[in-house]
């Protein structure tokens, strides 16, 4: 059971806009930055969003991140077939056990 | 450019200790704001963060695995080593190392995110 909760699957058709949610708590998303990673089949994860809504260079502006309270979202506009991948949210957690990173369970995005 | 590569055994027996090495290039782990982390992924499952070592030798561990993990760095060799004791079949996973970058300070203190990843190495735990 992951600390951050994501829907296990999402889907859309080419050109559509899809959003993937990530729910946490006050000790993680509520008080720390959110990060998003994309994992294409058979490859290592790739950083997609950092500090809630910042894109690394090279990441298309079709990808955007947002955060509100203890939840965050990743939006993908103009969906393309190459966006079919697993998406993971992550955040630091400052619970009593000390600062540590937590991941969501991942969302498998299917482009229909 | 920044590259990282994991190395170590592909098969370990239950109760043995796993030692993984991350060899990197394109950055120095003595540079302020830099770190190297380990993340694993059991087959078909989600990512799980394990540990992070900072440029100043500060370390963070997953609370659930802290008693079994040790992370160290050798700046002169551009290597980070992760040891995990008392391996179990549930520890079968692909283990990734990743370059960490300082994202700034929030409630959990200095936040690092992983912007470059190694290709990963599959470790199977079986007798």
Question: Which descriptors would you attach to this protein?
Answer:
heterodimer, A: 112 residues, mainly beta, 6-stranded mixed beta sheet, globular, B: 127 residues, 7-stranded mixed beta sheet, 0% helix
Written description of the protein model:
The complex is a heterodimer of chains A (112) and B (127). The model of chain A has no long low-confidence stretch (mean pLDDT 96). In chain A, strand 7 (85-93) and strand 8 (100-103) form a beta hairpin. In chain A, the strands form two sheets. In chain A, strands 1, 3, 4, 7, 8 and 9 form a six-stranded mixed β-sheet that branches. In chain A, strands 2-6-5 form a three-stranded antiparallel β-sheet, with no helix packed on it. Chain A is an all-beta fold. Chain A contains no helices and nine strands. Chain B is mostly beta strands and 127 residues long. Chain B has strands at 3-7, 11-12, 18-25, 34-41, 48-54, 59-61, 69-74, 79-84, 93-106, 109-117, 121-125. The N and C termini of chain B lie far apart (40 Å). Classes of the chains: A mainly beta (112), B mainly beta (127). The A-B interface holds A 2, 27-28, 31-33, 35, 37, 39, 44-47, 50-51, 56, 88, 90, 92-95, 97-106 and B 37, 39, 46-49, 52, 60-63, 96, 101, 103-104, 106-109, 111, 113-115, 117-120.
Structure at a glance:
The complex is a heterodimer of chains A (about 110) and B (about 130). Chain A has about 110 residues and is an all-beta fold.
Poorly predicted parts of chain A = none
Low-confidence stretches of chain B: none
Oligomer classification:
heterodimer
Q: Specify the helix fraction band of chain A.
A: under 10%
Largest interface chains and counts: A-B, 32 and 27 residues
Please tally the helical runs of chain A, counting DSSP H or I stretches of 4 or more residues. 0
Overall pLDDT of chain B, averaged?
96
Topology of chain B as a string of helices (H) and strands (E): EEEEEEEEEEE
Q: Which structural category do the helix and sheet elements of chain B fall into?
A: mainly beta
Range of strand content of chain A: 35-45%
Chain-averaged pLDDT of chain A:
96
Number of helices, where a helix is a run of at least 4 consecutive DSSP H or I residues of chain B:
0
Task: Characterize the overall form of chain A.
Answer: globular
Number of strands of chain A: 9
Strand content of chain B: over 45%
Which percent range fits the helix content of chain B?
Answer: under 10%
Give the helices and strands of chain A as they follow along the chain.
EEEEEEEEE
Largest pleated sheet of chain B: 7 strands, mixed
Largest sheet of chain A: 6 strands, mixed
What is the end-to-end distance of chain B? Answer: 40 Å
Judging from the principal axes of the Cα atoms, what is the shape of chain B?
globular
């Amino acid at each position: 059971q992951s600390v951050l909760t994501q829907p296990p699957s999402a889907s859309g058709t080419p050109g559509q806009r899809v959003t993937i949610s990530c729910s946490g708590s006050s000790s993680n998303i509520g008080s720390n930055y959110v990060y998003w990673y994309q994992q294409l089949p058979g490859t290592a994860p790739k950083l997609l969003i950092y500090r809630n809504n910042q894109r690394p260079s090279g990441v298309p502006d079709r990808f955007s991140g947002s955060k509100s309270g203890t939840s965050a979202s990743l939006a993908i506009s103009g969906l393309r077939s190459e966006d079919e991948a697993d998406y993971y949210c992550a955040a630091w957690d400052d619970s009593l056990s000390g600062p540590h990173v937590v991941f969501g369970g991942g969302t498998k995005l299917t482009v229909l | 450019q920044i590259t990282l590569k994991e190395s170590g055994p592909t098969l370990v027996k239950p109760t043995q200790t796993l030692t993984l090495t991350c060899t990197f290039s394109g950055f120095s782990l003595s540079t302020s704001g830099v770190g190297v982390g380990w993340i694993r992924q059991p087959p078909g499952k989600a990512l799980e963060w394990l540990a992070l070592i900072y440029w100043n030798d500060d370390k963070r561990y997953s609370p659930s695995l802290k008693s079994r993990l040790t992370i160290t760095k050798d700046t002169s060799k551009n290597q980070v080593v992760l040891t995990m004791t008392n391996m179990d079949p549930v520890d079968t996973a692909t283990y990734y190392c990743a370059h960490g970058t300082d994202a700034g300070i929030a409630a959990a203190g200095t936040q690092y995110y992983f912007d470059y990843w190694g290709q990963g190495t599959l470790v199977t735990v079986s007798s």
